[in-house]
């Protein structure tokens, strides 16, 4: 029925544009990279049909990798129950979800079944290592706490702290102590908020367990990429957490190991790597998998979620640093459920308007608007 409705629309135009966002402050360092910039300029594609419907979304593919879909019926490319069904149309995964939602008068979270909450937990993913800058005279921890306060006022109630200062930016012992001091300070200053930590694989297992020893009473909400995922070290981590901080989640899968083939089942992720992660999940060494929403792809994530559920864990797809990816992930979470929380990216949108989404007390309210519910102002 709904696919028949999509068949009544033929694509008459595919337009490429870019949209911009600006973060509230320059985003500095994680354990490995120096600078995360002021906000992205993102390539998007806008689809228009002969009946006057249009939809748009992120589409990273180069022009030569983007199929000419003009003349094709939307129903030959997209099935609301699955997502993109014509492999050649995969580079337009997000725009086709938006367009189909517009044609069907349905939000993406409704299209996916509305199995998750309407108010999706959303944490602040923008707490980086401003304390170690400028290098000649570092300002210290106060600035990081100010950033938390700023983002608290935007509505965030959970902060993800970048840790691993001793990997590159500080002598190892000082860096370890700074990570511990920051974690404890955030816990003390924001007692009602969750604290998440992300080392971007910047610790060894031994080093990370020493960090954890210093914060085991902080009831960390989650630990992300403490070290490169491997069975032996994750077993040691689990053993520690079971004794000292049993509610803390371990999440991994952001970093790609190997490359997926174009058109493969997990987009840019290698199937062997996804198999490794699902295996670690089945062994209860990981609690959530966080492969990027756009690197995997929206349709592929829809396909992957049942396997994640079957492995006994939840999802929390990575979104940094594109705020549109936060909104896409929130729609996935609200539609499919089984998602812990969504990585939020404080920013203001230029050229587009996401005001239909509202962040309040740490929850991102899903709009009823069709598709992804983000307006293009261009
Ligand atoms: Mg991360």
What does this protein structure show overall?
With 378 residues, this protein is α/β, with parallel strands linked by helices. It has two domains: 2-106, Enolase-like, domain 1 (2-Layer Sandwich), CATH 3.30.390.10; 119-376, TIM Barrel (Alpha-Beta Barrel), CATH 3.20.20. 32% of the residues lie in helices and 20% in strands. The protein contains eleven helices and 18 strands. The protein has helices spanning 2-7, 93-104, 108-111, 142-154, 172-189, 205-215, 231-244, 271-282, 293-296, 298-310, 323-336; strands spanning 11-22, 41-49, 54-58, 78-79, 83-84, 119-127, 158-162, 194-198, 222-224, 249-252, 288-289, 314-315, 342-344, 348-350, 352-353, 358-360, 363-365, 375-376. The strands form four sheets. Strands 6, 7, 8, 9, 10, 11, 12, 13, 16 and 17 form a ten-stranded mixed sheet that branches. The protein has a four-stranded antiparallel sheet with strand order 3-2-1-14. It is globular.
Topology:
Blueprint: H1 2-7, E1 11-22, E2 41-49, E3 54-58, E4 78-79, E5 83-84, H2 93-104, H3 108-111, E6 119-127, H4 142-154, E7 158-162, H5 172-189, E8 194-198, H6 205-215, E9 222-224, H7 231-244, E10 249-252, H8 271-282, E11 288-289, H9 293-296, H10 298-310, E12 314-315, H11 323-336, E13 342-344, E14 348-350, E15 352-353, E16 358-360, E17 363-365, E18 375-376
Parallel strand pairs: 6-7, 6-13, 7-8, 8-9, 9-10, 10-11, 11-12
Antiparallel strand pairs: 1-2, 1-14, 2-3, 4-5, 6-17, 15-18, 16-17
Helix pairs in contact: 5-6
The protein binds magnesium ion (MG).
């Amino acid at each position: 029925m709904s696919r028949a409705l999509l068949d009544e629309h033929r694509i008459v135009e595919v337009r490429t544009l870019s949209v911009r966002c600006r973060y509230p402050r320059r985003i500095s360092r994680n354990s490995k990279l120096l600078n995360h910039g002021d906000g992205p300029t993102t390539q998007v594609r806008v689809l228009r049909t002969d009946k006057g419907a249009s939809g748009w979304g992120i589409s990273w593919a180069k022009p030569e990798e983007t199929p000419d879909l003009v003349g094709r019926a939307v129903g030959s490319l997209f099935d609301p129950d699955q997502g993109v069904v014509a492999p050649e149309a995969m580079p337009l995964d997000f725009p086709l979800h938006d367009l189909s939602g517009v044609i069907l008068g349905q939000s993406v979270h409704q299209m996916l079944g509305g199995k998750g909450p309407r108010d999706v937990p959303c944490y602040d993913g923008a707490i980086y290592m401003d304390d170690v800058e400028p290098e000649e005279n570092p300002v210290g921890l106060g600035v990081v706490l100010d950033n938390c306060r700023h983002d608290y006022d935007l509505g965030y109630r959970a902060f993800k702290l970048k840790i691993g200062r001793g990997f590159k930016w500080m002598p190892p012992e000082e860096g370890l102590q700074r990570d511990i001091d920051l974690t404890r300070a955030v816990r003390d200053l924001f007692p009602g908020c969750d604290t998440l930590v992300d080392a971007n694989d910047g610790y060894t297992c031994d080093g990370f367990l020493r960090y954890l020893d210093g914060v085991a009473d902080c009831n960390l909400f989650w630990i992300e990429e403490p070290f490169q995922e491997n069975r032996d070290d994750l077993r040691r981590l689990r053993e520690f957490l079971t004794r000292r901080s049993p509610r803390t989640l371990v999440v991994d899968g952001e970093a790609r190991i190997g490359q997926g083939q174009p058109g493969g089942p997990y987009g840019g992720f290698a199937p062997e790597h996804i198999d490794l992660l699902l295996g670690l999940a089945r062994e209860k060494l990981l609690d959530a998998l966080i492969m990027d929403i756009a690197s995997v792809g929206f349709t592929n994530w829809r396909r992957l979620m049942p396997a994640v559920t079957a492995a006994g864990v939840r999802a929390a797809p990575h979104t940094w640093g594109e705020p549109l990816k936060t909104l896409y992930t929130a729609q996935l979470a609200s539609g499919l459920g089984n998602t812990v929380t969504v990585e939020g990216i404080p920013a203001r949108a230029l050229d587009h308007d996401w005001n239909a989404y509202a962040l309040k007390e740490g929850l991102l309210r899903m709009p009823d608007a069709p598709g992804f519910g983000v307006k293009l102002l261009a």
